[in-house]
Amino acid sequence: MEKTVLNLTVYFEEPFWYGFFERDDSEGYAICKHVFGAEPRDVEIYELLQKHFKRLSFGKVPDRLEAEAVKKINPKRMQRAVRSQTKDKGIGTKAQQAIKKLQEEQKSLHRKANRIRLEEEKEQQFLMRREKRKEKHKGH
Q1: Are residues 79 and 108 in the same domain?
Q2: Are residues 109 and 65 part of one domain?
Q3: Which residue from 112, 3, 4 is spatially nearest to 58, judged by alpha carbons?
Q4: pLDDT band at 3 (very low <50, low <70, confident <90, very high)
Q5: For the chain, which has fewer Cβ within 10 Å, the N-terminal or C-terminal residue?
Q6: What is the pTM for the complete model shown?
Q7: SS3 41
Q8: Structural contact between residues 100 and 90, judged by C-beta atoms closer than 8 angstroms
Q9: What SS3 state is found at 116?
Q10: Does one domain contain both 98 and 64?
């Protein structure tokens, strides 16, 4: 019985969406990169696998880069991993990311300044208490 494992990783690299196919079978480990263009829908990926899979040109990987043996992964663990990979991470545009970064920097600067101010106030209160104690001991 021949066993074939096929992995597809879809990722965005300016300006296109790419699919990275990995095939591990009796012939060995082979890879292929496919350009989707716009963000692919599930239907488009399914159609690619059904109708145009034979057109994909897989390249053999040299022996030193041979893939490790595929380990069985618990289905729930795999589901969590997929969910964390596909989860929306942050806001989208570069401008929004720059604004968010600026806000974070401002927040950290504000926290530092606030911490320094509180330490100075505590020091001032300590000095006032010490002066008050000295006045009480003078015997006026």
Answers
A1: no
A2: no
A3: 4
A4: confident
A5: N
A6: 0.41
A7: coil
A8: yes
A9: helix
A10: no
118 with 96, same domain?
yes
- With tokens 């950290």, the residue in question is 108
Q: Residue 77's pLDDT is what?
A: 92
Q: In the chain, pLDDT over 90 holds for what percent of residues? A: 24
Q: Which tokens belong to 42?
A: 């599930």
The residues, ordered by sequence, that sit 6+ positions from 44 with a Cβ below 8 Å of its Cβ are 36
Q: What is the pLDDT of residues 28-45, one digit of tens each?
A: 777 888 888 788 888 888
Q: How far apart are CA 18 and CA 38, in angstroms?
A: 9
Q: Phi and psi for 71 in degrees, rounded to 5?
A: -90, 145
Identify whether residues 81 and 96 lie together within a single domain. Answer: no
The CA distance from 72 to 115, in Å, is 51
Final residue in a domain of this structure, among 52, 68, 86: 86
